[in-house]
């Protein structure tokens, strides 16, 4: 955890609001494999990381609630009885959405002040939004003794994203950010929320995240469209979700749906199988197999599900050509954001240098690099 960030937030809060805050930390997440399977009741394989959002929060002594996003130096004030989504409201909608969803459960909160900041890149596939949602709901739960369970909190976070940010996201990000455990990843069955925790020891390999530093503008509407497509195919199949679809079942309705929709649904069926295979590969310490599955996942996301972009494809193709990297794929919603790579530790530095040069040459943009440690989920932190 970032001690400087925590200290800075605490000091800022005390200077601004003249009281001591409660501090929460909610991590971002990676996802080893299982892209766009969560809202299809399928399997995902995420882990919380050691980077995320820190929120400082305390009751207000007026009826006004103030929110401050320290990283972008923006402030918003509101009244608890007058909350609605803000057009292009960005971070504000995540926080307001949490407040509104808590109120919808019948629980009462009082006016509060909040300052938050983070050390994960925003909107780039590491779930900064889920981290913000979780840090706020966790803080409010503690401050006002709301008695919400962690599971209730992640569904509040997810609903906030649906109703205030307008993204019909699945539950993976909020789950991983809340329930992450040090050194482990979580195989989550999104149909029944059953989780299997597995130790991740990649030996002489490690996880390298590369941020394309691009986010193509249609990312959110495309995301919602994919979800709608999957729901349409499910309605044609007459089943509950693509989780219970099979390739044979899809063949039976092939002439009732478009070729593009057929390919997308097939991707989901195949990706679900890959997640289980990846889980077994990790348990058997078969990193080579894990790597192959990551490349296959990316191919499906690119060619069948159609959510990649040139920048992500470039990074994954580069990885494929390098013997140092055993697997790579795009991560998160797509259309920009990050790629996850599994790379031999001793080649990390030269690989970063090579990719940085090649990427800048091709796109005239500097990509950025993160190595991450798998970490514990959302929690209260003691000031340092
Ligand atoms: C975003 C969403 C998740 C999930 C991923 C794609 O991160 O928030 O629910 O659907 O995209 O795997």
The small molecules bound here are:
alpha-D-galactopyranose
Instruction: List the uncertain runs.
Output: none
Succession of helices and strands: HEEEEEHEHHHEEEHHHHHEEHEE
Mean pLDDT: 96
Beta strand count: 13
Task: Tell me the span between the first and last alpha carbons.
Answer: 11 Å
Give your account of this protein's structure.
It is a single chain. With 384 residues, the chain is α+β, with helices and mostly antiparallel strands. It has two domains: 204 residues, Ribosomal Protein S5, domain 2, CATH 3.30.230.10; 167 residues, GHMP kinase, C-terminal domain (Alpha-Beta Plaits), CATH 3.30.70. 43% of the residues lie in helices and 23% in strands. The protein has eleven helices and 13 strands. A six-stranded mixed sheet has the order 5-4-6-3-1-13, with helices on both faces. Strands 10-11-9-12 form a four-stranded antiparallel sheet. A three-stranded antiparallel sheet has the order 2-7-8, with helices on one face. α3 packs across α4, α4 packs antiparallel against α5 and α8 packs antiparallel against α9. It binds alpha-D-galactopyranose. Alpha-D-galactopyranose binds next to α5.
Brief descriptors of the model:
384 residues, alpha+beta, Ribosomal Protein S5, domain 2, four-stranded antiparallel beta sheet, 11 helices, 23% strand, binds alpha-D-galactopyranose
Quick description:
The protein has 384 residues and is of the alpha+beta class. Helices cover 43% and strands 23% of the residues. It has helices at 3-17, 91-104, 128-143, 150-165, 172-179, 219-237, 247-252, 259-283, 287-304, 310-321, 348-363; strands at residues 22-31, 43-44, 46-59, 64-69, 74-79, 112-118, 184-189, 194-199, 205-215, 325-330, 336-344, 368-371, 379-381.
